Structure formats: C-alpha cells, structure tokens
C-alpha cells in the first residue's frame, strides 16, 4: 500500500514540475530521481530509516503529498553534472525502502569549480566528510548512491537522544547528530540495537545530563532540566 501511495503522489507532481537536472536555475522546484542522487554523508542510521519508512507508509496519499512537498530534498548541482543531496538522507532512503523512485526536490545551489568543489561544499555545511570514528573521509570514499549508504547505529542513537530531549537543536550545530554519534561511540561498550535501545538511552541521559561533557552542539536538552 505504501508503494501505491508514492506512485499516486508522483503522478500529480511530475505533471506540474520539471525533472531535476543540473541545468535548472537555482531555486527551481523539481522532481528528482532518487537513484541518481549523490549522498554527501558516509552513512545513515538504519533504525531511523526504518522508523521514517513506517511513518510514511501510514500516510494517506494526500497526507504523503503534503509532507513530501513540505520537506523537499535540497540538491546542489556539481561540476560533473551530478545532483548532490545535501539533507534528508534518512527520508530519501526510507522512500527507496518503500519502492519510491522519485521525490519532490529543490535546487538550492550550484558549484561549478571542480578543484574546490568539496572544500566549498564543506564550507557551506553541505557535506560531512568524516567516518564513524571522526577521521577525515576522502570524498571518493562516499557511497555513490543512497542505496549504498551503510548503517551507523550510533547515528540512530544520537537521533533518539535528540527526540528524547537529552540534546537540543543548535543554531550552528551542522550535522550535530554525527558529532554526537562520534562522541557516543567512545562511551558506550557496544553499538546500539533495537533490543538495547532503552538501556542505551538511559546511559546517554546519564552521560549528557549528569556528567559534564566537552562542548558539543545543542547540549543539554530540555529533558535534562527535568531530572
């Protein structure tokens, strides 16, 4: 049923908006082919992807259309003519999981100089080039497609910690969940799973709300004030 909703949505959108391409003017709303988009981060939290897929699958066609148009995926045109996804990796991966082929998008930028492309992407906070341990990641090591993005369970845990209110959104906290994931991987004994999530979040709450940490984006969250 979820796949039907997606196809229904696209039938209406495709007729009204152009297909996304690097030739469009910046600011143009368009319909992007998910399989062609280039990731700008090395991983996703698959638990979070599963949650997003379940949420999308429960929507009516009208509600799905409204949600995806409100949360359009932002794209940057690169010097190679490719379209780079600069946010909403989890939503996009969830749509792939549901059989979606296309998604509403908006071209938010164009960077034409190949020699400085990735430096410019990072300067604009459009790319995260560090691995799960915080080591620099060469751009060529990024997955080529959304379907190839591996799981980073620590990224999922960071997202759940934010949902629980242990950390809050920071105005300058670009890729904050990845920063928190790097911090958490050195403080918990094993990668989080669905089965361990409650215990892991209790540990995260103690670490963030009780034990002082190094300066990290968004800490402490609203839930820490209630302890």
UniProtKB/TrEMBL annotation:
It comes from the Bacteria. The keyword Zinc does not apply. Coiled coil: none annotated. Gene3D superfamilies: Conserved hypothetical protein from pyrococcus furiosus pfu- 392566-001, ParB domain, DNA helicase RuvA subunit, C-terminal domain. Pfam families: ParBc_2 (PF08857). CDD domains: ParB_N_Srx_like (cd16390). Transmembrane segments: none annotated. This is Chromosome partitioning protein ParB. It comes from Crenobacter cavernae.
């Amino acid at each position: 049923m979820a796949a039907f909703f997606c196809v229904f949505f696209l039938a209406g959108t495709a007729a009204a908006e152009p297909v996304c391409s690097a030739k469009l003017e910046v600011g143009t709303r368009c319909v992007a082919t998910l399989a062609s988009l280039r990731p700008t981060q090395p991983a996703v939290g698959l638990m979070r992807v599963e949650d997003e897929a379940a949420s999308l699958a429960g929507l009516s066609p009208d509600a799905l259309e409204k949600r995806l148009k409100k949360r359009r995926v932002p794209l940057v045109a690169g010097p190679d003519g490719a379209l780079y996804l600069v946010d909403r990796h989890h939503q996009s991966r969830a749509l792939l999981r549901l059989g979606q082929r296309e998604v509403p998008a908006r071209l938010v930028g164009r960077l034409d100089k190949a020699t400085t492309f990735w430096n410019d992407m990072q300067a604009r906070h459009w790319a995260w080039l560090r691995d799960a341990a915080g080591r620099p990641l060469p751009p060529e090591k990024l997955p080529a497609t959304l379907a190839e993005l591996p799981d980073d369970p620590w990224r999922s845990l960071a997202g759940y910690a934010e949902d629980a209110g242990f950390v809050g959104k920071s105005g300058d906290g670009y890729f904050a969940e990845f920063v928190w994931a790097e911090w958490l991987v050195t403080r918990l004994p094993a990668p989080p799973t669905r089965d361990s999530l409650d215990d892991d979040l209790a540990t995260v709450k103690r670490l963030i709300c009780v034990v002082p940490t190094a300066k990290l984006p968004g800490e402490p969250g609203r839930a820490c004030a209630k302890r």
